[in-house]
Design goal:
The chain has 208 residues and is an alpha/beta fold. Helix content is 51%, strand content 12%. The protein has two domains: 126 residues, P-loop containing nucleotide triphosphate hydrolases (Rossmann fold, 3-Layer(aba) Sandwich), CATH 3.40.50.300; 68 residues, P-loop containing nucleotide triphosphate hydrolases (Rossmann fold, 3-Layer(aba) Sandwich), CATH 3.40.50.300. Helix 2 crosses helix 5 and helix 3 packs antiparallel against helix 5. The longest helix has 25 residues.
């Protein structure tokens, strides 16, 4: 993302949105998008790359074996997760395959939306991947742990898996310390809409 220089006045304001599992960062981005703001979903783009980018697929198979994809060519996410999340070196290798391609896709996304005042980049690992250095600001979406846990379980995940993911992610306290803006998502959807609207107005992307 070298082309996204902060002194380039011709490009949009680039805002990152992140948060732990169950915090509601994707919901926040959906609300932002409802105001007409272009939103790039990095996690979805990463999944698309692993499923449809021939060179990326080739590298994954070479690194992690034929079991990475089933007979019909569908990525076996359960297998791949079991391999990388227990091995920091292999996780780093997977990130080396995916992250540069995601960054290139975001570059294109910004160029395609260069007439917008604001472009949003949603990712679970903005700080871990040092993407914050390339953004004009980062929003951290946060909620109480019990609320996050309940949301993730309601979405179909087991309590054990959710707690394990929470342990693997950057602690909420650290995220809040690194944030430029914080959206607390403990209430209703209407409450969240109001809070996001206040944020966008404070950033001067909506009329007062």
């Amino acid at each position: 993302m070298d082309s996204l220089k902060k002194d380039d006045v011709r490009r949009p304001f680039i805002l990152g949105v992140t948060g732990g599992i169950g915090s509601g960062k994707s919901t926040v981005c959906q609300v932002i998008a409802s105001f007409g703001v272009p939103v790039f979903y990095a996690d979805d783009e990463g999944k698309r790359i692993l499923q449809s980018d021939p060179e990326a697929i080739k590298e994954v198979i070479e690194e992690f074996g034929d079991h990475s994809y089933d007979e019909s060519g569908v990525l076996d996410r359960t297998y791949l997760a079991s391999v990388v999340f227990n091995d920091e070196q292999r996780l780093r290798r997977l990130n080396q395959i995916v992250h540069p391609r995601v960054r290139a896709a975001f570059n294109n996304f910004v160029e395609e939306n260069s007439n917008s005042k604001l472009v949003v980049h949603e990712s679970a690992i903005i700080f871990e991947a040092h993407l914050d250095e390339l953004f004009d600001g980062v929003v951290v979406v946060d909620a109480d742990v019990d609320i996050r846990l309940a949301r993730a379980i309601a979405a179909g995940k087991s309590e054990g898996d959710v707690r394990k993911r929470m342990e693997q992610q950057m602690p909420a306290e650290e995220l809040r310390e690194l944030a430029d803006y914080i959206v607390y998502n403990n209430g209703t959807f209407d409450d969240l809409e109001d809070e996001v609207e206040v944020l966008l107005r404070s950033l001067l992307f909506l009329p007062r």
